[in-house]
Design goal:
The chain has 109 residues and is of the alpha+beta class. It is built from four helices and six strands, in the order ββββαββααα.
Length: 109
């Protein structure tokens, strides 16, 4: 299988202080963040990732703003907006819809 729910056969040891290693044959599991009470779920990251891929193929991202018809507005995508959206920084188009794929991916791995 592939994707975030796949088994990661190869171990990884960064040999850095305060950084955890990844054991061989690890499966990604939810991460419970004790300092801010959030739970990071692998499936949610997969959903957000798929939404970003869809935005790339369609050429637009959904904004967090609604138009007069009540539907989410769209924003033509470009590399800058895609990068900001994946990083979920100030330039992110819609953090609720697209999440924080980059940072949370690091946390899960």
């Amino acid at each position: 299988s592939s994707g975030i729910n796949a088994e990661y056969g190869e171990a990884y040891n960064v040999r850095l202080e305060n950084v955890s290693f990844r054991p061989a044959n690890m499966r990604i599991a939810p991460v419970y963040r004790f300092n801010d009470t959030r739970v990071i779920y692998p499936d949610k990251i997969s959903t957000c990732r798929e939404r970003i891929f869809t935005a790339i193929s369609k050429g637009y991202l959904y904004s967090s703003e609604k138009g007069e018809d009540g539907q989410l507005k769209t924003v033509q995508t470009n590399m800058h907006l895609l990068g900001c959206t994946m990083e979920a920084n100030e330039g992110s188009v819609n953090k609720k819809m697209y999440g924080n794929v980059h940072k949370n991916g690091h946390v899960l791995l």
